[in-house]
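Write out this protein's structure.
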Amino acid sequence: MCGRFTQEYSWRQVRDAMDLTGPAPNLRARYNISPTTRIDIVRRTSVSRELARARWGLLPAWWKTPLKETKLSTFNARSEEAPGKPMFRSAWKVARCIVPASGFYEWTGPKTARIPHYITARDGGLLAMAGLWSEWTDPDSKESLLTATILTTAASAWMAHIHDRMPVFLQPEEFDAWLSAKAGKELMLPAPDHYLTEHVVSQRVNSSRAPDDDPTLIGAVS
């Protein structure tokens, strides 16, 4: 799964990595992104790709419960189930996205002494996590809200010692096929064992309330 991650990049970095167009947005490095907060996503437009902001936790257009009463955990979707699951089925067909990330967290050890691991691309580049998006309207406030989820798959052999699931990572040559929905399940594979690296970080990140603007959260500890 992926329940916490980071987005630390400049506009030039994400623009070049994702082949984006449009004016430079005001980006802020974030080191402790939690579900239900806003995240950057890349989605396809009629002429190009754009960087948009979405609530992390997908809500389908037909969902009728007001946001303040919604308790769903839809920040991840299992790629094996998403094409047929009512919560994600429509988005799988027509509303694909990429979630750019500089890294993500997973934990090992007992619940009373969880050890956080920060996982990044071995080459230091951006990670491109496969995702789905949905435009949803709150029935109470009538506010239109862009929402998104990150797709997961079975862990690679390398990842399995940390967790039995991992995000689906896309390569640049797969971006068009994914975003256009010309490809699907065949892209939902574990990352190669040489693709990622990890180090243990401070247990301060065990709390979702740790400041998301604190770069020391991703620093290695012995």
